[in-house]
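Subgroup meeting minutes
Present: P.N., E.W., G.H.
Scribe: E.W.

1. P.N. recapped why we're keeping a running log of single-chain structure predictions: easier to compare across weeks, and new members can see raw inputs and outputs side by side.
2. G.H. added today's entry (89 aa).
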Amino acid sequence: MEADHALNLMNDMLWTCLMIAGPLLGATLVVGVCISVFQVATQLQEMTLSYVPKILVAAMLLIVLGPWMMARITDFARSLYLAIPMMAN
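Output recorded in log:
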């Protein structure tokens, strides 16, 4: 395997990870910031208040985007397995 090919595979892996984890992380970040602003505005300093909305948003996104995420992961894995014979040369 050449170094260029290995770097291309790593680049594809990182972009796939970003595409899969990005929506989930972005949504929980937005919910966390909104809850933090609410806590500052109301002076409610409860540490566990931000966990429940973030967990609910993450669960909803996993239910909605789960099939798409699995399809992306399996497509990437399938392309890696199909590329094995070309790597041996």
